[in-house]
Design goal:
ten-stranded mixed β-sheet, alpha/beta, single chain, two-stranded antiparallel ribbon, globular
């Protein structure tokens, strides 16, 4: 692989990204073995090239905690945390089968199948070439996995956040038409600041995640996971997706 511009990255995967979709692009089965295997292969190649990789996975394929009808919000979020652990263990298994060292860490005590989260231990694992998958969010309710990824990235001193989504960047407005297709006439950002996202209500991440990322000077790339090779392309420096920068004086740039 070509020379990489980052040494330590934190990759965010949505739960939907590892799910199998139906013809209407809705979650049909919670896991797509093919996409998970391709992600694991990409992660293995990054590690082989000397890149330290942390991963946070959402749980939208299993449980939409905030929307659980009739379920107390705090409990619904706890269910969502457990959903992330299922996803983490599934990805851990796939990465392990690539003969790549990997562990899952959780802020909630689950010692029978995950390590107790400690950022110093996580950094030690990364320095040893081990992939670290961070499960169960931050361990408290009312906090999304978007916020989790910014917090974990800051704690482990990641160089950048790689936000792999079901869309290929950040647009000036929702580009999807009524059929879910992307309207390419809608401008797509190449570079945009967190301030711009917050002021204009652009949904790069949730508001709290953007605010923390700006404060911690933690940049992120938002790009499509439709092709897992995009992860490597971003790390190599190819200009895909959208760079969200903490620099307030950055003028927006478009593709």
């Amino acid at each position: 692989m070509a020379e990489c511009r980052f040494k330590r990255v934190l990759l965010k995967l949505s739960g939907e990204a590892i799910a199998k979709k139906d013809d209407e692009n809705k979650v049909d089965e919670i896991f797509d073995p093919e996409i998970i295997d391709r992600i694991a292969d990409v992660v293995k190649r990054l590690v082989d090239d000397g890149i330290q990789v942390g991963i946070v996975i959402g749980a939208g394929n299993i449980w939409r905690g905030a929307y659980g009808k009739g379920v107390k919000r705090a409990r619904a979020d706890q269910m969502g945390m457990l959903g992330t652990m299922i996803n983490c263990l599934r990805l851990e298994d796939a990465i392990e089968k690539k003969n790549c060292p990997v562990t899952v860490m959780s802020p909630i005590n689950m010692n029978s199948f995950a390590e107790q989260y400690d950022f110093r231990k996580a950094i030690a694992h990364l320095n040893d070439g081990m992939v670290v998958i961070f499960g169960a969010g931050t361990g408290i309710p009312f906090v999304t996995t978007d916020t989790t990824v910014v917090v974990r990235a800051s704690e482990i001193d990641a160089d950048v956040i790689l936000m792999a989504k079901n869309i290929d960047g950040i647009y000036t407005r929702d580009p999807r038409d009524e059929n879910g297709e992307i309207d390419r006439s809608v401008p797509r950002y190449k570079v945009v600041s967190y301030d711009e996202c917050l002021v204009k209500g652009l949904h790069a991440t949730d508001v709290s995640a953007s605010a923390i990322a700006k404060e911690q000077k933690m940049d992120m790339y938002v790009f499509a996971l439709s092709d897992p090779e995009n992860i490597i392309k971003v790390v190599k420096g190819e200009e895909i997706g959208t760079l969200v920068t903490h620099k307030s004086d950055t003028e927006p740039q478009f593709h």
